[in-house]
Amino acid sequence: MKHDHGDHGDHGGATATVAPARAASPPGAGVRARALEALGAARRRTLALTDCLDDEELMAQHSPLMSPLVWDLTHVGNQEEIWLLRAAGGREPLRADLDPLYDAFRNPRADRPALPLLRPPEARHYIAEVRERVLGILAESPLEGSPLLENAFVFGMTAQHEQQHCETMLATHQLRRGPAVLDAPAPPAAPAGAADLPREVLVPGGPFTMGTSADPWALDNERPGHTVDVPAFHLDTVPVTCGAYQEFIDDGGYDDPRWWTPQGWAYRREAGLSAPLFWELRDGVWLRRRFGRTEPVPPDEPVMHVCWYEADAYARWAGRRLPTEAEWEKAARHDPATGRSLRHPWGDAEPAPELANLGQRHLRPAPAGAYPSGAAPCGARQLLGDVWEWTSSDFAGYPGFAAFPYREYSEVFFPGGEHGGQGGRGGQGGRGGQGGRGGHAEYKVLRGGSFAAHPVACRGTFRNWDFPVRRQIFCGFRTARDAAPSGKGGR
Length: 491
Description:
Layout: H1 29-50, H2 55-59, H3 69-88, H4 120-140, H5 153-175, E1 200-203, E2 206-210, E3 226-230, E4 233-236, H6 242-250, H7 262-271, E5 279-282, E6 285-290, E7 293-296, H8 308-317, H9 325-333, E8 388-394, E9 444-447, E10 464-466, E11 475-476, E12 480-482
Parallel strand pairs: 8-11
Antiparallel strand pairs: 1-4, 2-3, 4-12, 5-6, 6-7, 8-9, 9-10
Helix pairs in contact: 1-5, 3-4, 3-5, 7-8
């Protein structure tokens, strides 16, 4: 399933590939139950994000960056039909006529409103019919005998795809103009002493295992596990906050080309950037629009809706830099006491509400310093959840990468891939049409998930990617510096 972006979600025109070697384990009730719960959770969220709007709002395109919500609604069902009904279950197509309409590569987001899309009642009926048949297949499947079925991989992949679209649909809600229709409780406050946390943590140098060869539901770009030697570095304890980012604005950071790459400065001028997306300065007070509400910008929350160029400029202004993808993952996963790479910063236990801000439980990031129980061994907090974090790294395959179960999920977005510089997964997709340097993909890696990401699609190895101009996604960042003295140590 591929993302179209800002989501990890769209895919179409999928071409099956030979599976890489995977550790097989006997199927059991636990695997089947996990798949059933993952599919159910994804569908509940999909319906919650679409049932709150009338049919005309679902058919409308709220931004050329995004699909009409009814397209996403039908697309998740179409991909479920392709992968679970047909590929896993061996059944005849239910609605093969929908395949070309809901193929993300064939239909860029900006073009989708003109397609003869199913209207919401028909879309709901279709996805319910697909799901009813899929549940029968899941109940009967041996969950072994092929790489797609082992450990219910294809069911997990499909659940992740739908949850990725739920994050995309939430981004559409944020872009939508109109009265608020979504609500959620506020995230927990930062604990006492959070304001006194050290600015940065030291991540010792040395080798660690990056990626995974063992996680049964890991996607192809997370594989295989491999050793990477990372020199010692310092990393921000928490993501950069709105208050810290306001200092960059107040210091004229948007008007000083010294802090911007040439491409970033050109884009800043072209797009007229002067603050994060959805921010507005009114009577000397910074306000933001959040899901139909206007509110003061909270200074202690991680800054959000900044593109890679903005994050990179801030880091340069602060005398620091963005971390590499390997640095980010080492900080999030490496346990110096055991030498192991953990599944999550806190260990191998599944995410829980006290560990990370995930799953759209709260429709905003938690204050910086929250979730002390979810801290990584290095001491950094909020590495999973709250905001996706830009890294300095381009998106590329790991050594030994093998596309599975189809090239279009990841491989076509690597440098030199056929979608390099074309507007993102799914052609133009949500990434917009601004391409990369010299025909290369120029997709930057984001890590860590956001408050909008579901735990099934968020782990220490999970990789997101997008164009460096992308801002509508729930993205922020933290900064790093070399451990060895290198001049200015940062503000």
